[in-house]
Specification:
heterodimer, A: alpha/beta, Quinone Oxidoreductase, Chain A, domain 1, 2 domains, about 20% strand, globular, B: about 325 residues, 7 strands
């Protein structure tokens, strides 16, 4: 089959690789009909996530048709079913899964011992997301093996096109969980750093969950425009406006009730000098992640407010404003999305028309064009916000 | 069997440092010697004149050079003893340094007399004392290590099943090869007897009989090999309910006598055998099997959790074992 493979930092290529097969009783093999490039794939592309190997199949946002099933798959999954696959791999049986914390499944990372060396304890395995998180082949391919298929998939009827349900695999639940972690009350103002797909869905979700006002912060005018037109958020371009001042002004000095970091480890700063400071430390591995958005979110948040850190971080950050965080009684919540927990309720919301996730798609191309897709997504060319690949 | 939980390794520490039974006294002594080295090194380098006078060798430029080299060397000993998380072979580097120092002192003694010779004599006696202490420390730290490595391994894991379930699963020894990767098969041969077959180096296998020596339903099973097992071994597993209905702690302890003693153990390690790591991997797989019904496999780790395999991953690409494309 054809699959998009990681070759080296800043290099991916579509190659012929063997077809996946059933390895375990609860596996399924899915013929992929739609798959997407995620912002977190760019961290892999840039080489900031450790333990990538030449030839790793990328991709963790995919859906398709079940073509093969292991004998142990429960929950009435059948060959021919149309399914969306959750990006965290979760067994459904361990204590974490039973509490709904699927992205920290205790059994799905066979390489947990390496992850423990870096993170203390291991999170769940993730499709196409480094050997630290399992060494699973990803879904930017024609087929994928889905372990624990009875837990990791949701069946979709024929009433909804791929474009409306594909993002149940990752970015829609991720954005939704970011908003949910803000514990939104009536009248709340939510500020969101990053107008990528997760930021867009976090904005839409925050309004859906009853926020009074949502303010999205980015530096690309087209992304801010998409947020204004599709989610009802207000926007700040941080290259033109000082974010702290603007947020203070917009909230008459209080600050937003909750701040969502939907940027993660590769943030930018309006000040070239400050950006260069963290970029240099990242290049020399003194710190692995550039936490510009997180720092600003902490300083902006109202006293007693909540920081919802949903953007992906991989390792270590410097200059975290701990004094501000501690003295002002802030709370931080975080996590990779527990996708399996959100797929069903969010599918219901899509069915009812409460949200149409397809508004983020700016490009649809063939799987063979994946390297081009990575390129324009990375460089924000051609107003790229989300690339969907058709194998 | 009564053993506190302190010092017992959990499977989540499988790449880490062995904590079980560490000889705290010799560790402390080794650290102390590290600080002594640091002090000596700094003093010698900063106050070479005074030190050379104290030792009675202030009359020779060569001796002062030798002292400078010794000072730098002391800093090396300090690094070897203070930086690693566990004092291993660092103490032996001090013993080697002592031999050099004694030789240098002996050489210097030959062409000196009077007060200088007197001072040099005191220095030599001091050196001899230090050598004895270093030798004692080095032997104690490394002997302790060898004994630990050769004999016993401990590991533990928490599972989301009741102690009764875990006991029942483990009590059927025929289940053990499902998660203990070095076992080929276990066959129950009697009420308390079973026949175990394990993989041995070079594709061979080794078999022995085992008997259950203690069996407390829902709590503990312990067993030992009987007759002429080539690798006499014993094991016990305890199942302890976690407070608040949070599953069960499974704590395992294995003992064995490796063929060829210490040398045999070292040779086995050269071939990649590490019993501590294997037990940790085994318990991880036990958790997977009893909770999910299967061993977690990925394209990078198709044989499941195995620390050695994690270091040498194949690419995350489907395996090419079954014929043509779809």
């Amino acid at each position: 089959m054809r699959a998009n493979c990681w070759i080296a930092p800043n290099k991916v290529a579509v190659k012929n690789v063997p077809d996946p097969q059933i390895l375990n009783p609860r596996d399924a093999v899915v013929r992929i009909t739609s798959t997407a490039i995620c912002g977190s794939d760019l961290h892999l592309l840039h080489g900031y996530i450790p333990a990538m190997k030449k030839g790793d199949v990328l991709g963790h946002e995919f859906m398709g048709e079940v073509v093969e099933l292991g004998p142990g798959v429960r929950d009435g999954l059948r060959i021919g079913d149309r399914v969306v696959v959750a990006f965290p791999i979760a067994c459904g049986n361990c204590a974490s899964c039973e509490r709904g914390l699927y992205s920290i499944c205790e059994n799905s990372n066979p390489n947990a011992a390496i992850a423990e060396k870096v993170m203390g304890h291991s999170p769940a395995g993730i499709f196409g997301y480094s050997h630290l998180l399992g060494g699973y082949a990803g879904g930017q391919a024609q087929y994928a093996r889905v372990p624990y298929a009875d837990v990791g998939t949701i069946k979709i009827g024929d009433d909804l096109p791929d474009e409306k349900v594909l993002f149940l695999s990752d970015v829609l639940p991720t954005g939704y969980m970011a908003a949910e972690m803000c514990d939104i009350k009536r009248g709340d103002t939510i500020a969101i750093w990053g107008a990528g797909p997760v930021g867009q869905f976090a904005a839409a979700s925050a309004l859906l969950l009853g926020a009074e006002r949502v303010i999205v912060i980015d530096r690309f005018p087209y992304r801010l425009r998409i947020a204004r037109e599709n989610t009802g958020a207000e926007t700040i371009n941080y290259e033109q406006t000082d974010v702290l001042d603007a947020l203070r002004e917009m909230t008459a000095g209080r600050g937003p009730d909750a701040c969502i970091d939907a940027v993660g480890m590769e943030g930018h700063h309006a000040s070239a000098a400050l950006h260069a400071y963290d970029r240099a430390k990242q290049a020399t591995k003194v710190e692995t992640d550039r936490p510009h958005a997180l720092r600003e979110a902490v300083l902006s948040c109202r006293n007693g407010g909540t920081i919802s850190a949903i953007g992906a971080y991989g390792g270590f950050i410097d200059k975290f404003p701990m004094g501000s965080f501690m003295n002002r009684s802030l709370t931080m919540r975080s996590g990779q999305a527990h996708v399996q927990r959100y797929m069903r309720p969010l599918l219901e919301r899509i069915r009812k028309g409460e949200i149409d996730p397809s508004f983020i798609i700016t490009h649809t191309m063939r799987l063979d064009d994946a390297p081009h897709g990575f390129d324009i997504f990375k460089n924000k060319q051609d107003e790229c916000l989300k690339v969907v690949l058709k194998p | 069997m009564a053993r506190t939980t302190m010092g017992v390794r959990s499977v989540t520490d499988s790449l880490g440092i062995e904590r079980a039974g560490r000889d705290r006294g010799s560790e402390g002594l080794a650290r102390f010697l590290g600080w002594v080295s640091l002090g000596l090194g700094v003093a010698t380098l900063a106050r070479r004149e005074q030190v050379s006078r104290l030792c009675g060798v202030d009359d020779s430029p060569t001796a002062r050079q030798v002292l400078a080299v010794a000072g730098v060397r002391e800093l090396g000993h300090a690094a070897a003893l203070l930086i690693p998380r566990r004092a291993g072979w660092g103490a032996w580097s001090r013993v080697a340094g002592d031999v050099l120092d004694l030789a240098a002192a002996g050489q210097a003694m030959k062409d000196r007399c009077g007060e200088r010779r007197q001072r040099l004599t005191y220095t030599t006696w001091a050196l001899a004392g230090i050598t004895a202490l270093d030798l004692y420390t080095a032997v104690r730290t490394t002997r302790g290590r060898r004994l630990r490595e050769a004999n016993r391994v401990y590991a533990s894991v928490t599972i989301n099943r009741s102690a009764a379930d875990a006991y029942r699963f483990w009590h059927d020894f025929e289940n053990l090869p499902r998660f203990m990767s070095h076992l080929q098969s276990v066959r129950t041969t009697g009420d308390r007897r079973s026949r175990w077959t394990a993989k041995a180096p070079a594709g061979r296998s080794v078999s022995w009989d085992a008997e259950i020596v203690d069996d407390r339903p829902g709590q503990l099973i312990s067993w030992r090999s009987v007759g002429g097992a080539r690798v006499p071994n014993s094991g016990s597993v305890r199942f302890i309910p976690v407070a608040g209905g949070r599953g069960t702690e499974v704590r395992i302890e294995l003992g064995y006598r490796a063929p060829g003693g210490v040398l045999g153990t070292r040779a086995a390690k050269l071939f990649g055998e590490n019993p501590q790591q294997q037990v940790c991997d085994d318990l991880r797989r036990f958790k997977q099997v009893i909770e999910t019904g299967e061993i977690t496999r990925s394209d990078g780790s198709p044989d499941g959790s195995n620390v050695q395999q994690q270091v040498k991953q194949r690419p995350a690409q489907p395996l090419a074992t079954r014929g043509s494309g779809r």
